[in-house]
Design goal:
This protein is an alpha+beta fold. It has a single domain, classed as Pyruvoyl-Dependent Histidine Decarboxylase, Chain B (3-Layer(bba) Sandwich), CATH 3.50.20. Helices cover about 20% and strands about 45% of the residues. It is built from 2 helices and 9 strands, in the order E-H-E-E-E-E-E-E-H-E-E. The strands form 2 sheets. Strands 2-5-9-1-4 form a 5-stranded mixed β-sheet. Strands 3-7-6-8 form a 4-stranded antiparallel β-sheet, with helices on one face.
């Protein structure tokens, strides 16, 4: 199983349109998102890249781990995913959002350490953090998402 991880910064005149812009930039704008609780299954391979969504999957369900932060004028918006995996692929994602890269890095690191300790895992640690300071009169949205799979409603 391949899990695709990506992060983007969206912009819009409303918070909803900024979130929608981020979803489209991430490649998941026409899916119905179903948020997962962050467990990575055995055998999973995680790849950092843009998500490609075929037009035939318009309206499909998308199972994903994600987080986002909306920022207004002069605010910062950051979102991050961290994860660890054992050699067999199993692991856990952690997702956080906030107002600075340093804050997100600290939260991810602290969460990873606690989750690893609880599970007695020694696996590899990775992270993806996206965001920035809003310098416009619009809203911004920092979004990170890990796409597990898409599925039709039938």
């Amino acid at each position: 199983m391949e899990i695709i991880v990506t992060g983007v910064l969206g912009i819009g005149k409303t918070s909803l349109s900024a979130f929608d812009d981020a979803l489209f930039k991430a490649g998941v704008g026409n899916y119905n998102l179903i948020k997962l609780s962050s467990i990575i299954p055995v055998g999973a391979k995680i790849k950092k890249k843009k998500i490609k969504s075929p037009s035939k999957e318009y309206g499909f369900k998308l199972y994903a781990v994600y987080d986002y932060k909306i920022g207004t004028k002069n605010e910062s918006a950051w979102a991050g995913l961290g994860w660890f995996q054992e050699n067999d692929g199993r692991g856990v994602f952690v997702e956080h959002n906030g107002t600075s890269k340093k804050e997100i890095e600290g939260l991810i690191k602290m969460s990873i350490q606690e989750l690893q300790k609880r599970r007695l895992y020694r696996g590899r640690y990775n992270k993806l953090i996206i965001g920035g300071k809003n310098k416009s009169n619009h809203f911004i949205c920092g979004l990170v998402i890990a796409k597990y799979k898409s599925e039709n409603w039938n």
